[in-house]
Amino acid sequence: MVETKSYSGRLRVSRGRVYVNGQPRTRETVEEAKREAAAVGRVLANELASRKLTVRPILCVHRADLPFFAPSAQGVPIVGRRGLVKMLRGAPRVLTSDQVMELARITNARLRPAARPVLALQQEQWAVTAARSAAGLAPIPAPGYEDALYMPPDRRDRLRAALEAQARATDERAYWTPKGVVEGLAPGPHPAKRTRD
User: Fold this and answer.
1) Angle value at C-alpha 170, between 169 and 176, nearest 5 degrees
2) What is the mean pLDDT of residues 145-172?
3) Pick from 12, 29, 49, 85: CA 20 to 30 A from residue 119's CA?
4) 3-state DSSP of the chain
5) Tens digit of pLDDT for each residue in 48-85?
6) Which residues have CB under 8 Å from 70's CB, separation 6+?
7) 192 or 4: which carries more pLDDT confidence?
């Protein structure tokens, strides 16, 4: 399970803790990678147990200056982009390409994307717009921060949380395929709006 981060500056590890430019970053790096690996391990528990496999967290940090010797914190390896490719290519092959694709399909089906609340709000808005259009009324503009003052407080809070989740879910990522590493954007909340660099 690869957790990616993008930091500028110097990263160092001291006593199992991660610091970037002297600021503690353990919670949003190593601990987050471990939590996500545990989540993937839970949803794939049966499939992994039958193959005698476990989920291993890896922290991939872009842009930051990493220590010369491969660092790790709390048992989580910390690598750059090239280090990640080297680690994956050097690892023993325990699954076939078909098994990897099957596990990916199961994982995608069982883990809910962080951006899904935005899609639910958008679908709600589309339903209201369709109903108003059918009644001959003008459509209501899509909700955003600019018109949050006109929303009920609970809906405004849900929208803000959903938009923040969407922003976190659209970080740059790299995908491992049988042909190698493919770089691109994480899937957004609406399949028709996905883009690639």
Assistant:
1) 90
2) 60
3) 29
4) CEEEEECCCEEEEECCEEEECCEECCHHHHHHHHHHHHHHHHHCHHHHHHHCCCCCCEEEEECCECCCCCCEECCEEEECHHHHHHHHHHCCCCCCHHHHHHHHHHHHHHCCCCCHHHHHHHHHHHHHHHHHHHCCCCCCCCCCHHHHHHCCHHHHHHHHHHHHHHHHHCCEEEEEECCEEEEEECCCCCHHHCCCC
5) 999 999 999 999 999 888 988 878 999 999 999 889 99
6) 77, 78, 79, 83
7) 4
